[in-house]
Amino acid sequence: SVWFGASLAYLGGANFSAFIKNTREDVNEHLEKTLLKALNKLNIYLNTPLPEEIDANSTEDITVSTRKFLDGDELTLADCNLLPKLHIIKVVAKKFRNFEFPSEMTGIWRYLNNAYDRDEFINTCPADREIEYAYLDVAKRMK
């Protein structure tokens, strides 16, 4: 979707980069809020039921999606693009900024956990310590 492409660039690009490279404590809160806003947009998308999840003939009112991935229960190219970036953000933000995705972001956690259940994801994803090492020179210490 168009939303997805724009959101991916927004989430994985400038917002995360500014947050992780920032050295000023007085700016950190603003950058964290900006990252949270982007994550929340993704979370809302992941929790919004897709049309195929809603049965027009059912009396059930589906208010939260249960799908595993962006476009349903199967991995797509879009997932293969977003999931590694999302995982890197999770690992690096925790290590260098003590920032964790809020537990209330159930769509994001469902999405990540479904990826972690897939061999093709865990077998191609670098170990957390490798990701942390790769960001040692990028992530700046707060002053």
Describe this structure in words.
This protein has 143 residues and is mainly α. The chain has one domain: Glutathione S-transferase Yfyf (Class Pi), Chain A, domain 2. Helices cover 60% and strands 0% of the residues. The longest helix is centred in the N-terminal third of the chain and has 23 residues, at 25-47. The N and C termini lie far apart (40 Å). The mean pLDDT is 87. It is found in: Membrane; Cytoplasm. GO terms for molecular function: chloride channel activity; D2 dopamine receptor binding; D3 dopamine receptor binding; D4 dopamine receptor binding; oxidoreductase activity. Keywords: Chloride, Chloride channel, Cytoplasm, Ion channel, Ion transport, Membrane, Oxidoreductase, Transmembrane, Transmembrane helix, Transport, Voltage-gated channel. It is a single-pass membrane protein.
- The number of distinct β-strands equals 0
Tally of contiguous helical segments: 6
Cα distance, first to last residue?
40 Å
Q: Unreliable stretches, pLDDT < 50, 5 or more residues?
A: none
Oligomer: single chain
* Major sheet summary line: none
Radius of gyration in whole Å, from Cα? 16 Å
Q: What would CATH call the architecture? A: Up-down Bundle
Average pLDDT, to the nearest integer?
Answer: 87
Number of domains: 1
Helicity, in percent? 55-70%
